[in-house]
Amino acid sequence: KAGVTQTPRYLIKTRGQQVTLSCSPISGHRSVSWYQQTPGQGLQFLFEYFSETQRNKGNFPGRFSGRQFSNSRSEMNVSTLELGDSALYLCASSLEGDRKAFFGQGTRLTVV
Amino acid sequence: GIQVEQSPPDLILQEGANSTLRCNFSDSVNNLQWFHQNPWGQLINLFYIPSGTKQNGRLSATTVATERYSLLYISSSQTTDSGVYFCAVRYGQNFVFGPGTRLSVLP
Predict the structure, then answer these.
(1) Per-residue model confidence (pLDDT) at position A56
(2) B93 and A99: CB-CB below 8 Å?
(3) Which of A86, A101, B51, B101 suits a disulfide with A92, CB 3.0-4.6 Å?
(4) What is the mean pLDDT of residues A23-47?
């Protein structure tokens, strides 16, 4: 069974641009959640999607958004990028939101 | 919100030594999981352990939900065990991570 796949692995963007990250969950998993990891703030929850519906959202500004498609693949979008958005973005999938979570390798975003 | 603490923050061991990592949480949780983050950033799920004890090779974990803590035991450590260990708790609809324990195993 293929693991969680995140694309792209690395990304460099300029302040003010927007970016879209993709996450393909393990086959059969319907829950996808996103996290931001920075040296200063650690791992922080962004949002969770289940069956195409956002179930919960962390404490991030509206510039951070996401969606989930009918095949459970998910995308997250960050608009008007700021230097502080530089981070490792991780997505995790699970059968249900409260079951064992499996993480992708992450997308390392650098904003210059 | 819930507070998740991990101790120690840093740990340096000689290869072959044993260690215990601790995770404390401030409220009742739906589940608890332990992860190992390797040097490339990938989070590997070690245990899904809302309560009780589980073992997987040289690793074992115990969660005492009523006392709001979990322990991760690493026996006969190897250099490949190096990295950061996180506990994460499911609190409501959120997944909350602790700050991690950075483990360095020296050859």
Answers:
(1) 86
(2) no
(3) A101
(4) 94
